[in-house]
Amino acid sequence: MVSVLSIQSHVAYGHVGNSSAVFPLQRLGIEVWPVHTVQFSNHTGYGEWTGRVFDGPAIEEVVQGIAARGVLGSCDAVLSGYLGSADIGHAVVATVEQVRAANADAVYCCDPVIGDVGRGVFVRPGIEAFLREVAVPAADVVTPNHFELDLLSGTTTGSLPAVQDAVAAVHDLGPRVVLTTSLVTDDTPDDAVDLLASEGGRHFRVRTPRLGVSVNGAGDAIAALFLAHWLDTRSAGEALGRAAASVFGLLQRTEDAGSREILLVAAQEEFVAPTRTFEVVEV
């Protein structure tokens, strides 16, 4: 059985961070060891929430407890998402090093959450630099959105060739697989959105219809799903096709229901048998 150590935020109500990533992984038959960086009542998009933020030593303490069970050698991957502080980021990277020491084949998937189009950078000062200089170079797989790809590569991209150059710059930082989400270039139709998975100098694109739904947690879900399918297939193109189909189905169901939260449980069949699939094209 595949095991993933997921270090992310957690909310009691709704689905972001681990609350968005853990269940899809479990539905695919993966054993998940969630370590929470925060425990909030709900995601911060509501404007009000309760709960606590944990620090780096708190994360390390939980990981040490897991290590004491003698199981880190069976951990296949570490997954991380939003980082509330640099010390949590350092705890994540230290965990990756510890897992790799126990299992040299373990991989690190980093979702480099920095910001988004329309919102700009929304992480605390220092996080963007930490991701570019420490976390991303330590990662095997990274899953930036288009906005984050530009920030990590230090460019502004509007065409597919420019995006491919930006991806190459991110590969040069260290990761061997780059999944770019929410991609819009000058050849993306107005009613569509692209995803691009890149590995070994090859680029694979999936184009899906643009939906009107705007919910938190979809990026956390696709990072988890892409990692799961890449671990299974070791193919960026295959993982892209499967993950894109599942997330589109999840968001379609959410839009149809008019829900503010992604319908992670109600739409769970989309993770194992997506309603609709999309062509994966090498570009």
Structural notes for this entry:
This protein has helices at about 20-25, 55-65, 85-100, 125-140, 145-155, 160-175, 220-235, 235-255, 270, and strands at about 5-10, 30-40, 50-55, 75-80, 105-110, 115, 120, 140, 175-185, 190-200, 200-210, 280. It is α/β, with parallel strands linked by helices and about 280 residues long. The strands form 2 sheets. It has a 10-stranded mixed beta sheet with strand order 3-2-1-4-5-8-9-10-11-12, sandwiched between helices. The chain has a two-stranded antiparallel sheet with strand order 6-7. The longest helix has 22 residues, at about 235-255. The protein is globular, with a radius of gyration of 17 Å. The two termini are about 35 Å apart.
Helix and strand succession?
EHEEHEHEEEHEHHEEEHHHE
Characterize the overall form.
globular
The amount of beta strand, in percent, is 15-25%
| Low-pLDDT windows of residues | none
Helix share, percent: 40-55%
State the major sheet.
Answer: 10 strands, mixed
Q: Structural class per helix/strand content?
A: alpha/beta
* Strand arrangement in the largest pleated sheet: 3-2-1-4-5-8-9-10-11-12
Gyration radius over CA: 17 Å
Say how many strands there are.
12
The termini sit apart by: 34 Å
Mean pLDDT across the residues is 97
Q: Give the number of helices.
A: 9
